[in-house]
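Hey, quick one: can you model this chain's 3D structure?
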Amino acid sequence: MFIYSLKARTLKLFGVICLSLALIITLVAFIPTLADDSIAASTSGESVDYSYDKVKNASDVVNFLSQFGWTVNGSVIESEEVTIPAEFDKVFAGYNEIQKEQGLDLSKYKKKKVMRYTLEVTNYEGYEGRVFANVLVYRNKVIGGDICSADVSGFVHGFEK
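Sure thing. Here's the predicted structure for all 161 residues.
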């Protein structure tokens, strides 16, 4: 038979740990988190909020891109379901850095199937070639994307001009 005795000091410590744990759980459950639904960008001292949620179809993608000042050739060139890789190679890690610069992160979506919409941008200034917008959507929310040129030696950058 084993006998274990508790001192008042041990009971107090156990009680403090339990209360602390309950407080942390309560805070996590009831304090609103900073969601990716709207991300604030700062341009010349002004704060601009972009909405990344409620993107269900191609027309919603067009509206999403218009927040950044892009006009697109109304129809989607390509709409395809793609899978975010489980392990990022060098190229995809670089692409994810572009996403992180615009407040997004694809590493949270590894192994997930997402929709990629590709549209042609018609108002890209200072470039004569074709420019495309790629938008990645997961569960009606934009999780990534880019504006890029069709040239091999062209450019790729985030949504902001």
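One thing worth noting: Residues 8-30 form the longest helix (23 residues).
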